[in-house]
Write a structure and sequence with these properties.
It is a single chain. By secondary structure, this protein is of the alpha/beta class. The longest helix is centred in the N-terminal third of the chain and has 21 residues. The chain starts with 5 loop residues before the first helix and ends with a strand. The model has no long low-confidence stretch (mean pLDDT about 95). It is globular. The protein has a 7-stranded mixed β-sheet with strand order 14-15-16-13-12-18-19, with helices on both faces. A 6-stranded mixed β-sheet has the order 9-8-7-10-11-21, sandwiched between helices. Strands 5-6-22 form a 3-stranded antiparallel β-sheet, with no helix packed on it. The protein binds adenosine-5'-diphosphate (ADP).
């Protein structure tokens, strides 16, 4: 690694290798792939390009470790997780540097994600001691007790957009429950995952409890198959695209594995005419431009009441001009980084070009920001949008605000729900009965009411419809990694 910003990084990334059974390992083949900065194209380092046999070794290590890890008391596991949290907290800056280097997100945003990611470890260190069972009255002369047990080895496949938090949100819950895990991070951001493995090592976890296998996109399908179908794996938790999620769900069906899926969204952001427009604009800016729009809960379709449409659009365009500064994540003036890779650039460009070709009005942006770098896209606001445009149907995953008009609440809710996705939704109103009504009628798993920050360790995160299965975070997050065993005690 080069550059002054890389100095800090090496303290948490002494090995650019996979982490299996408590050891830093190469791929058996010796193959590697490079990891680059999306901002500058600079090659940061290379990591092992693993395949099925490497992954099988990691699963065997997790399987071996399961018996002793699951036999610890809840308090012992809680204390281990707390130690991990303390190590993470001590190394937050280094983690953020690594994340900025490989993801391009601005350093202060990376610091925010690290704090958010760490908070799941803290939270599940506390929840580990509250995996309570139940005693229920029996209809006969016996005693009925339900206990919760860890499901076993779990596979965790994670995306690049939140390289730290998407791992800790799953792994801390799994470890708290008594499961052991094999993690396959995204090919764009394996370094954060390996740095996390190093923090696990520093915290003193037993070997085999937490394993990381890295691979290229080309080998993801092969490793994914093993992670879904190995007889030693009890369950899968995946965050990523709906397409890949469906494929993995199918593969898990063969062995009837436990499955938790956090997939794509198509979030509506509705502004009613009673809303506090300043607040709505504030929240729209925060929610839309977080991580350059590359978040599954990012608002994808803005539905603005006719009475306030012009005012909302005008304020948003003004804020975009004054607030957003594209650039390298290590530059303190930067508010917004690049898109992660060429595929993302191609996708956002295709969606915006399609809208323009079909008659959308471009208020700002509308094209790539090649003057900043080849993966940057200008923040864009579109109106005159019609339902035949891709921007109303696809998850854009970029810095593009798509504004549409409505006149009645029924119309807004109907349009908001007119999608196969159902992850997050946001709306702004000062009418209390409308707030309840719309909150209940939106077909999503999470709703922000006059609010854009809808995720924290305490909140049950997850979607309905094709946005996924299961919940992460909150006390529900642990349930995905436990099963209920019913005990019937006869009265001898
Ligand atoms: P995105 O399009 O945002 O990259 P993906 O769903 O493609 O989202 O990627 C999320 C994660 O899934 C990444 O770790 C990626 O490597 C992994 N992945 C992609 N394809 C497969 C596959 N066929 N089997 C298993 N994992 C996969």
């Amino acid at each position: 690694m080069k550059g002054s910003n890389m100095k800090l990084i090496t303290s948490l990334l002494p090995h650019s290798k996979g982490f299996v059974n408590g050891e830093w390992v190469d791929a058996l083949s010796g193959h590697t792939f490079t990891v680059s900065s999306p901002s500058t194209g600079e090659v940061l380092t290379s990591v092992p390009d693993m395949v099925a046999v490497d992954c099988e070794l990691a699963i065997a290590a997790a399987d071996n470790a399961f018996k002793s890890w699951s036999s610890l008391t809840a308090k012992e596991r809680a204390m281990m997780l707390r130690r991990w949290y303390n190590v993470l907290d001590d190394h937050s800056k280094d983690l953020a540097h690594i994340m900025t280097a490989e993801s391009g997100k601005p350093l202060n945003e990376a610091m925010g994600e690290v704090a958010y990611g760490n908070s799941f470890v803290e939270w599940f260190s506390e929840e580990a001691r509250r995996i309570n069972g139940e005693v229920v009255p029996s209809p006969a002369n016996k005693q009925l007790v339900f206990i919760k047990q860890p499901i076993g080895v779990v596979s965790l496949i994670t995306p690049w957009n939140f390289p730290h938090a998407m791992i800790t949100r799953k792994a801390a819950a799994a470890l708290a429950a008594g499961c052991t895990c094999v993690i396959k991070p995204a090919e764009d951001t394996p370094l954060t995952a390996l740095a996390l493995a190093y923090t696990v090592q520093l915290a003193g976890f037993p070997k085999g409890v937490f394993n990381v296998v890295t691979c290229t996109r080309a080998n993801a399908a092969e490793i994914g198959r093993v992670l879904c179908q190995s007889p030693s794996v009890a369950g899968l938790s995946f965050t990523g695209s709906t397409e890949v999620g469906k494929l993995l769900y199918n593969q898990c069906a063969v062995g009837v594995k436990r499955v938790s899926l956090e997939l794509g969204g198509n979030a509506p952001f509705i502004v009613f005419n009673t809303a506090d427009i300043e607040r709505a604009v504030e929240c729209a800016m925060a929610a839309k431009f977080r991580n350059c729009g590359q978040a599954c809960i990012s608002p994808n379709r803005f539905f603005i009441h006719n009475d306030v449409f012009e005012s909302f659009v005008e304020k948003m365009v003004k804020r975009i001009h004054t607030d957003i500064k594209l650039g390298d994540g290590f530059d303190p003036n930067t508010t917004t980084g690049p898109l992660i890779n060429d595929a993302q650039v191609a996708k956002v460009t295709r969606i915006v070009d399609d809208a323009i070709a079909k008659g959308a009005k471009v208020h700002c942006g509308g094209k790539r920001a090649l003057e900043v770098g080849d993966k940057f896209f200008h923040p864009t606001l579109l109106t005159n949008v019609t339902s035949d445009m891709l921007c109303t149907k696809e998850e854009i995953f970029g810095p593009v605000v798509v504004c549409m008009r409505f006149s009645t609440e029924g119309e807004a809710v109907q349009q908001a729900n007119n999608t196969s996705r159902g992850l997050a939704g946001y709306f702004f109103t000062n009418d209390v009965s409308q707030a309840w009504r719309v909150a209940k009628n939106l077909e999503v798993g999470m709703v922000g009411i006059n609010e854009s920050l809808i995720s924290s360790a305490e909140i049950a995160f997850g979607g309905i419809k094709e946005s996924g299965l299961g919940r992460e975070g909150s006390h529900h997050g642990i349930e995905e990694f436990t099963y209920i065993k019913s005990l019937c005690f006869g009265n001898a």
